[in-house]
Design brief:
With about 120 residues, the protein is mostly beta strands. Helix content is about 0%, strand content about 50%. The chain is globular.
């Protein structure tokens, strides 16, 4: 069973930065997908960014392109999300996700494993 543990959330003013981390327990395969989703109160969980550990081009939601960067350290089984130029609309609970096979990064039901989430709050 893969376990994911997020960290790095917090409160920041608009224009600030945060870096989220997601530590994954040992994975049985060398190649898998990892991603970040977010969910604001009253809204559906939506993908922010995704990446494949085999080096495929990362995926970004249009709303975060140019501001957020997803990266991973395969040796540490750790995923990161660098968030710059944060906006109040980025306020949400952020979740790390992982799966062995994903055909559509946006499809939350394709992701098998989830972390408990970390809160990001951006004030204006």
């Amino acid at each position: 069973q893969v376990q994911l543990v997020e960290s790095g959330g917090g409160s920041v003013q608009a224009g600030g930065s945060l870096r989220l981390s997601c530590a994954a327990s040992a994975w049985p395969d060398d190649h898998y997908y990892m991603g970040w989703f977010r969910q604001a109160p009253g809204e559906q969980r939506a993908v922010v960014a995704g990446i494949h550990t085999g080096g495929l081009s990362p995926y970004y939601a249009d709303s975060v392109k140019g501001r957020f960067t997803i990266s991973r350290d395969n040796a540490k089984n750790t995923l990161y999300l660098q968030m710059n130029s944060l906006k109040p609309e980025d306020t949400a609970m952020y979740f790390c996700a992982a799966a062995q096979t994903v055909t559509d990064y946006r499809a939350a039901d394709q992701w098998n494993y989830w972390g408990q989430g970390t809160q990001v709050t951006v004030s204006s």
